[in-house]
Amino acid sequence: MKIAVVGTGYVGLTTALLFAELGHDVLAIDIDEEKVKKINEGFCPIYEPGADELLKKHAGKNLKATKDYDIEDRDLIFICVGTPSREDGGMETKYLEEAARQIGRRLKRGSVVVVKSTVLPGTTEKLVVPIIEEESGLKRGEFGVAMNPEFLREGLAIYDTFHPDRIVIGELDKRSGDALEELYRPLKAPILRTSIKVAEMIKYASNAFLAMKISFANEIAILCEKLGIDVYEVMKGVGMDHRISPYFLNAGAGFGGSCFPKDVKALIYLAKKLGYEPKLLTGTLEINEYMPRHVVELAERELGSLKGMKIAILGLAFKPETDDIRETRALPIVKELLKRGARVIGYDPKAMENFKKLVPEIEYAKTAEEAISNADVVIIQADWEEFKNIDFDSFENLKLVVDGRRTARPKKVRYVAVGRGD
Ligand code: UGA
């Protein structure tokens, strides 16, 4: 099939790579000239394990990038642009609207437009389709419409895209649903066909549920600390119930990233607009906002005032295996530390340059060892693999390790972790 993918962020690029690997002819469209150039030269514009190899294999062959919406000959056009949070928590639709306008201008009769961006229920039918109709002069039915949410995790984007738990296809017309089912069949994943609005809501409900699981584990963690027991042992037992599952029950510094905070906020915004004051969703965010402060309070509980103390923060990305710092819990932790007059030294294997732009006022170390050897306290914010092998006991200067991701195992040096009540 001839496919176009609009937007080459995590979702767009991995979607383009998936279809290229499945043997289709893929055109990746992005407004960013630099990204387009990189993709065509076979260099991946994002850090994502496995993406480089796939891009080298397909760039310039059956995967081409362009700034132009050359979509006249495309059977399927996937919209994968960002829908970031607005100030009021609502969903920013300007990129989506622009993509719909551009697609509408050059859409041929019979092509199928698929919204893959995370969009609030109703957006595809009430916003995207009318723009395309207006620009193209075609009516729905003369072009196909589907909504196909993406469930990949950053850092595991390629794996998740090739091994999805399920494929959700929301369809306005059967022909579009059939085309997508055919496209995804080689992945051998369960396929759920439904309406557009349901597909849109499945994405939000899934992310909100996972975020809620994390906040739930964090709330229980605080209780466990007070009870002198370990939340990880508790959740091990809890997660053995197949109705609950052991995943996303890891207590710590809270959830970050470009999706959970944004999507929970957008759902709260929508609920309020619909006249309902959401309780669980609001609680999920409130707990998450508290956890970075809790991490700092654990250090204070052990050492008293942190004023003038040298504190190394390991892991600046929102999680390991990514250079993405969007909504990273490292930011509120650093802010809390600076507020208390601490001296902060940051280190991350991949996200240091990004974080430096956001927080130029702290010190940065070239290696984890350099950061630790200059610090009184270490706070672990992201559980990068390389941190697991650090021998914290070998640093004489070190007074305390505060573990926000349950990754260190020092024997001698004082150690506290979220949800570990001893
Ligand atoms: C998340 C979802 O997991 C994906 O299914 C979804 O497609 C994606 O959002 C999206 O909507 O695009 P992602 O944000 O890449 O993926 O990262 P996760 O691995 O889900 O982690 C999110 C945050 O939760 C991280 O800060 C992580 O450290 C934290 N987390 C995760 C916990 O604190 N505890 C856990 O048990 C699991």
If you had to describe this structure to a student in words, what would you say it looks like?
This protein folds into 2 domains: 2-194, Rossmann fold, CATH 3.40.50.720; 196-422, Rossmann fold (3-Layer(aba) Sandwich), CATH 3.40.50. The model has no long low-confidence stretch (mean pLDDT 97). It is built from 15 helices and 14 strands. The strands form 2 sheets. The protein has an 8-stranded mixed beta sheet with strand order 3-2-1-4-5-6-7-8, with helices on both faces. A 6-stranded parallel beta sheet has the order 11-10-9-12-13-14. It is of the alpha/beta class and 422 residues long. Helix 5 (123-136) links the parallel strand 5 and strand 6. The chain binds uridine-5'-diphosphate-glucuronic acid. Uridine-5'-diphosphate-glucuronic acid (UGA) binds at residues 118, 150-154, 207, 210, 214, 248-250, 252, 254-257, 259-260, 318-319.
Concise account of the structure shown:
This protein has 422 residues and is an alpha/beta fold.
From the 3D coordinates, which CATH architecture of the largest domain would you assign? 3-Layer(aba) Sandwich
**What characteristic shape results from the CA principal axes?**
globular
Sheet with the most strands, sense and barrel status:
8 strands, mixed
Number of helical segments with 4 or more residues: 15
CATH topology tier name of the largest domain: Rossmann fold
The run of helices and strands is: EHEHHEEHEHEHEHEHHHHEHEHEHEHEE
| Total beta strands | 14
Mean pLDDT across residues: 97
At the first level of CATH, the class of the largest domain is Alpha Beta
Approximately how much beta-strand content do the residues carry? Answer: 5-15%
Q: Which range best describes the helical content: under 10%, 10-25%, 25-40%, 40-55%, 55-70% or over 70%?
A: 40-55%
Structural class: alpha/beta
- How many domain regions? 2
Based on CA atoms alone, the radius of gyration comes out at 23 Å
Query: What is the end-to-end distance?
Result: 59 Å
Q: Pick out the low-confidence regions.
A: none
List of distinct ligands in this structure: uridine-5'-diphosphate-glucuronic acid
Q: Report strand order across the widest sheet.
A: 3-2-1-4-5-6-7-8
Looking at CATH, the homologous superfamily of the largest domain is NAD(P)-binding Rossmann-like Domain
